[in-house]
Write a structure and sequence with these properties.
Blueprint: E1 9-14, H1 25-44, E2 49-55, H2 60-69, H3 73-90, E3 97-100, H4 104-119, E4 124-133, E5 138-139, E6 145-148, E7 157-158, E8 175-179, E9 187-197, H5 198-210, H6 217-229, E10 233-235, E11 237-239, E12 254-256, H7 258-276, H8 282-287, E13 292-297, H9 303-317, E14 323-325, E15 332-334, H10 349-355, H11 358-367, E16 375-377, H12 379-408, H13 421-442, H14 446-467, H15 469-475, H16 477-497, H17 503-512, H18 550-565, H19 582-586, E17 590-601, E18 604-614, E19 617-623, H20 631-634, E20 638-642, E21 648-650, E22 653-655, E23 658-659, E24 661-663, E25 669-671, E26 683-684
Parallel strand pairs: 1-2, 1-13, 2-3, 13-14, 15-16
Antiparallel strand pairs: 4-5, 4-9, 6-7, 6-8, 9-10, 11-12, 17-18, 17-20, 17-26, 18-19, 20-23, 21-22, 24-25
This protein binds zinc ion (ZN).
């Protein structure tokens, strides 16, 4: 490795997700899952580690989303902050603190940084001409100006980019520009802004970067190309009414640029974490101490901000640690194509969690992590990895060992006798595993760590086969006991070694080994020497990894294919508040239905399967309401159903229609019903 200076503590951050939309697999694979694996490992190593993340809640995309929906920016960020925080928790992201940049602490911390740099004379002020909407009485951010693209003639191009041809634009290039707010022609008006002269800080940034070791070549390569071009002055303020106010007199209507305030979110969230711990000064130990190892996990689109701009701010301030490493990931594609949120060409965490188990996804994403180049999520490969690796190797070994111990040794650990060559080899494989896997994780080589881990499970499965305990149980019971003792020892070690990547399964496997303790509180290094005492009572044997069937992933593949078949530039999902015509509305057939039967769907704790009656017609539907309604409580209830929705398969079960329900930000769910009794089959207009 060679990068580990003698640090006393580790501060890990994941890029703050933007609170104007939900999280998808590409996000998870880039900045969150690798960080979570790294942090879980460091905790097991008993290191002092704090993991910080939170919502990035400022910036123009949020004000635009708010305009479109006719709500306040605060309402937008409140919704997505809550949703994204909940989604991350479901996927086991073990943040010590998940903050948000709209918090008073963040505003205060960002303003202090601005004042500090301003007082030191770091900034320069510039007067410039900007487009102004007199009716709305505000300066227009680039995104708020629309007009004809000078390159392709697309009439709806934005002031920063044409979404038709992809050209980068400036608002003054647009032909016949208008304000997106009022439709008026904007006028030029003088405004004044603060700039950080990055060129003047470039030498210090380069000197610092020269001391970095163990950085990924793709990260350093991108950084060098920015530096070779030479850093320019960059505005840290803008005219907008949403964000952190510029804390100076005569700066009304001016806020900090979101690129400037967002990374400060790591500091403000650490402050809030320290307050929650009852030790408000504790954040300084992590941020203002040279023996802290600061690691930023990000996607490659964030490299320039975390490797150049934020460090430049911190260098100019002078009293903060700088990142030891920024192990940025490349991008994740989906079924051979780029992810697209506007076209809904993505797998959203919230949707995935409704239908599938979490650990198989963590496993597959870690196995294909885009560490040095872009990688591709393929549903079929996800299923194969689950079935042939998690289920057939790791799960099978654990289950056959525990089942054998249950049947032949009354569910207890038999005594270990004399060892043969294979026994010794297996024990030494286990003893070497924590250091080998650990070294890969320390080096941000999560794919390699996973291969090394699976090799231990493979070796254990082979050891079981080679020692043939089902044969020796009759011929040589002492040898059989030794074999099982070592297999159980391997199961125990694997339960702990899987904890960083497969946290939910690790807890399950640990309980199956008969431990009442928390696997995530154990010590990684104990794997080298931990023993299960002879006679130790094992726990209940359960299936560790469920085998999946093709029919479960078919609808997912189908959905993506359909989107891919749509013409370009046409968002598949309409904005929720976009107007629709009466003809479009008439296409949706809503009908009253009576629930005549309801039951839980096996192995899917959120799904209910229901038979519904609509006049003469009976149909089956599947809905994700099992956490909110018991099957018994539903029978006889009248609900509203979208009757002409294309049939779909959910977990392989046909669903022919969709029920309507309301859900609030807290996740409370209520089925839509009727306030007077009406016959089932009645249409809703
Ligand atoms: Zn264009």
């Amino acid at each position: 490795m060679g990068t580990m200076k003698n640090y006393k503590r580790i501060l890990v951050t994941s890029a703050l997700p933007y609170a104007n939309g939900p999280i998808h697999l590409g996000h998870l694979a880039g900045a969150y899952l690798p960080a979570d694996i790294y942090v879980r490992y460091q905790r097991l190593k008993k290191r002092d580690v704090v993991y910080i993340c939170g919502s990035d809640e400022h910036g123009v995309p949020i004000t635009i989303a708010a305009e479109k929906k006719g709500v306040s920016p605060q309402q937008i960020v409140d919704q997505f902050h809550a949703r994204n925080k909940a989604a991350f928790a479901k996927f086991g992201m073990s943040f010590d603190y998940y903050g948000r940049t709209s918090s008073p602490m963040h505003h205060q911390t960002s303003q202090e940084m601005f004042i500090n740099l301003n007082d030191k004379g770091v900034f320069i002020k510039k007067t410039e001409q900007q487009l102004y909407d007199a009716k709305a009485r505000m300066f227009l951010p680039d995104r708020y100006v629309k007009g004809e693209c000078p390159h392709c003639g697309f009439p709806e191009a934005y002031g920063d980019q044409c979404e038709k041809c992809g050209s980068s634009l400036s608002p003054t290039e647009l032909i016949n520009p208008i304000s997106a707010l009022t439709g008026d022609k904007p006028q030029q008006k003088e405004t004044e802004h603060w700039y950080i002269p990055l060129g003047a800080l470039q030498k210090q940034v380069e000197e610092w970067l020269a001391t970095r070791q163990g950085w990924k070549p793709n990260v350093m390569g991108q950084v060098k190309s920015w530096l070779n071009e030479g850093l320019a002055d960059r505005a840290v303020t803008r005219d907008l009414n949403w964000g952190v106010q510029v804390p100076l007199p005569h700066a009304e209507g001016k806020v900090l640029y979101v690129w400037f305030d967002a990374p400060i979110g790591y500091i403000s969230a650490t402050k809030e974490w320290a307050m929650e711990k009852g030790n408000p000064e504790l954040w300084k130990t992590y941020w203002q101490n040279d023996d802290t190892r600061l690691v930023h996990f990000i996607g490659k689109d964030n490299i320039v901000f975390h490797c150049i701009m934020f460090p430049a701010m911190l260098i100019a301030h002078g009293n903060y640690v700088l990142p030891d490493n920024v192990p940025a990931n490349e991008f994740l594609n989906l079924e051979g194509n780029k992810l697209s949120t506007s076209r809904n060409y993505a797998v959203w965490l919230e949707d995935y969690a409704e239908k599938f188990d979490i650990d198989p996804l963590r496993y597959y994403l870690a196995a294909i992590a885009p560490e040095t180049k872009d990688s591709d999520f393929v549903w079929q490969e996800y299923l194969t990895r689950n079935n042939s690796e998690l289920a057939d190797i790791l799960g099978n070994f654990t289950n056959r060992t525990l089942a054998f111990a249950k049947n032949q040794f009354t569910g207890t650990v038999p005594a270990r006798g004399d060892l043969d060559e294979l026994d010794r080899e297996m024990l030494s494989t286990i003893a070497r595993a924590p250091d080998e896997i650990g070294a890969a994780i320390e080096n941000f080589e999560f794919r390699k760590a996973l291969v090394l881990f699976m090799n231990v499970a493979r070796a254990a499965n082979k050891y079981f086969n080679d020692q043939e305990p089902w044969r020796t149980v009759k011929q040589n019971p002492a040898k059989c006991a030794t074999t099982l003792n070592i297999c159980l020892h391997a199961c125990n070690a694997l339960a702990l070694l899987m904890a960083p990547v497969l946290p939910f399964s690790a807890a399950k496997a640990w309980a199956m080994m008969g431990h009442a303790t928390d696997v995530h509180q154990q010590a990684w290094d104990d794997v080298r020497h931990m023993e299960l005492p002879t006679g130790h009572q094992l726990g209940r044997v359960e299936i560790l990894f469920r085998k999946m069937e093709e029919k479960e992933i078919e609808p997912e593949i189908e959905r993506l294919k359909n989107i891919q078949a749509q013409p370009d530039n046409k968002p598949v999902v309409a904005e929720p508040t976009a107007s629709i015509s009466i003809d479009e509305l008439a296409k949706v057939q809503l009908r009253v239905a009576k629930i005549v039967a309801a039951e839980k769907v096996e192995k899917a704790d959120k799904l209910l399967k229901m038979d519904i009656q609509m006049g003469d017609e009976q149909r089956q539907i599947v809905a994700g309401i099992a956490l909110h309604y018991s099957p018994e409580a539903l029978i006889g209830k009248k609900i509203i159903v979208v009757a002409n929705l294309q049939p779909a398969k959910i977990r392989g079960i046909e669903s022919n229609g969709m029920l309507l329900a309301a859900q609030d930000d807290q996740g409370n769910l209520s089925l839509l019903g009727l306030d007077k009794d009406v016959n089932d089959g009645a249409s809703v207009r």
